[in-house]
Amino acid sequence: MIQCCAECGKPFKTYPCWVKRGTKFCSRECAYRSDIRGDKISQSKRMGGNLGWMERNPKYHGIHSWIKRHYPKPLFCSHCNQIKVLDLHNYSGKYTKDLDDWGWLCRSCHMKVDGRDTRRLTNGTYASKS
Question: Most buried one in 47, 93, 100, 104, CB count within 10 A?
Fold first, then answer.
């Protein structure tokens, strides 16, 4: 199958599966020079440097992975100062990029701060939050 390059206009050989994927350029050089690709890159830089990061509405796992990269895990729980397995905890529940709103807590302190420890029933399940 022959297709014309979206950047330089030269015809190049391609395959139907590549066309389905959206191949528009004859080479990487044309792809890097193109305004089509450049728009995506500039949009990415405006939105925190990553096409997957949505500045206005970040997802749960996206914000957690960003915080884990920018807020290193200490050796001790910030609540009880013991060496245990640590979980990332958000104090306000708003899930922003403010590092002061996050902390590394051990699992037992994390449950106490969240209020999950007081809702535990005798059979090991949790009562609904009211």
Answer: 104
